[in-house]
Amino acid sequence: MVPSEDYSHAPPCCAVFFVKGERPKPNRESTKKKTMKTNTNKKTKSELLSRPEPLSTENPRRIDFNRRRANRSLNTAKLLALLKSDAPAFHEAAEIVGQWVWIEFEDKQPVTVTRTLAELGFYWNRVRHAWQHPCGIYHN
User: Fold this and answer.
1) Integer Cα distance of 82 and 71 in angstroms
2) Residue extents of the structural domains in the chain
3) Residues with Cβ < 8 Å from 79, sequence gap 6 or more?
4) DSSP string covering 84-128, please?
5) What pLDDT, on a 0 to 100 scale, did the predictor assign at position 62?
6) pLDDT-based confidence at 131, cuts 50/70/90?
7) What angle do CA 113, 121, 138 make, to 5 degrees?
8) pTM score, whole prediction
């Protein structure tokens, strides 16, 4: 059995909370958020409108997948002949590893180079950091 107590009287320490139904406001000085002043370069409206037009409407990242599919089935000799006629710079960088052809670069290549390699049937091997062509030995 619980003794009956009168809870209608709040202790005097909480009397501050029940004045006009408002909660006490915290001290603004102690809770004021400190902001860091930074120098921002705000662009004027005229600077934002003076963007150059793109040089071409063709998307440089778009790959011709029909050409890629056809080139992936080429054997080593046919691929090297294609590289020699269409992309002599890639032919010079090509290395034959077994029946595969690898092309490695020192630095990251521009999008146009990677698109061309992809259309020639190469794919990027991120483990070996090389472009590889299976020379007809691959699974769809």
Assistant:
1) 9
2) 65-133
3) 71, 101, 120, 121, 133, 135
4) HHH-HHHHHHEEEETTEEEE--SSPPPHHHHHHHHHTT-EEETTT
5) 86
6) very high
7) 145
8) 0.55
